[in-house]
Please model this.
Amino acid sequence: MTRNFKTIAAATVASVAILGAAATQFAPSNASPAADTPIEAPATPVTVAYPTVKPIIEWDEYTGRFEAIDRVDVRSRVSGYLTEVAFTEGQVVKKGDLLFKIDARPFEAALRLAEAEAGEAQARLRLARQQLGRTQALVSKGPVSRARYDQHLAEMNSASASVEAANARVEAARLDVEYTEVRSPITGRISDEFVSLGNLINGGAQGGTLLTTIVSMDPFHFEFTASEADYLKYVRLDQSGSRPGSRDNANPVQVKLLDEASFSHTGSMSFVDNQLDISTGTMRGRATFANPDGTFAPGMFGRLRLVGSGEYDAVMISDSAIQTDQAEKFVWVADTDDVAQRRTVELGPIIDGLRVIRGGLEGSDRVIVAGTQFVASGAKLAPAVDPTSIVAQVAAQ
Model:
């Protein structure tokens, strides 16, 4: 048994020696250990696009509502019973059109009484003048004293004043009769009748019965508010000469309504308030719009955009290329060595479907627009240029 074991061991040692010799014979002469061989990662395929660079003017957007330039609360100047409503509710009335009638009989009677009193005063004045004339002729001859003359002169002056007062009462009574017909003070669209026929109307500006309202229809005001920061921006632009201020210039504005996709209505700035609202920190502004077809109505909501900058060359890219890291916005770009770089960017508004980049990019940068999920900072890239970006860049130039 010992002899067999020695034989097996000798055979095993021989086999190992043979395998080692074979490995040495067939191994390459310049082979090195695997640990010394570097492995280079393949370049990441991405699509890049050039930013669009073109001259633009920025527009700032605000929400607001339309208001009629003129709005009148219609009230009667005299009291009395309402006898007639002479308009169709909700329709357009013209300045001077008859709206309401109030029972005029008491005022007509008062007018006749005032006219009669005026006639009586005229008669007294004529008599006083005659007496004064006779007395004046006799004073110079002596039969009539100077005191009697002075008395007749005072009576004539009193009668003259009575005539003036009577004429004023006639004029007031005539106005009261005229005021029994309530007419439209402006041209505009009228509301419904707030008081029915037969009701007693209280006249006068203070506490008078509200009969209806009228609003003008063309043109219209659009009221909105801007933040203090926006107000200061406009002031600085005006001071630098980049954009004139809206307080002294009719800067162009555009508005779109609730059911509209584009800013299709054009108007101009017409007013900027003289102080900020301390409770909200906003400045009130107003624009004016023509309304020939009657589209606008008081209280209607709209979105307005106002020129927010002077013209400048803007760098613009697709919004989809912008990444977010917490509060930071960035994009990936391929540098001149086709290496990925992360660029922090400052965003502006979207204009014509592209995002304005205020800082962080130049027009010659190649922005990665596809394949960013496989990109890391410093990674080697295999960029393919989006041909549409080249066309857009050439068109912008």
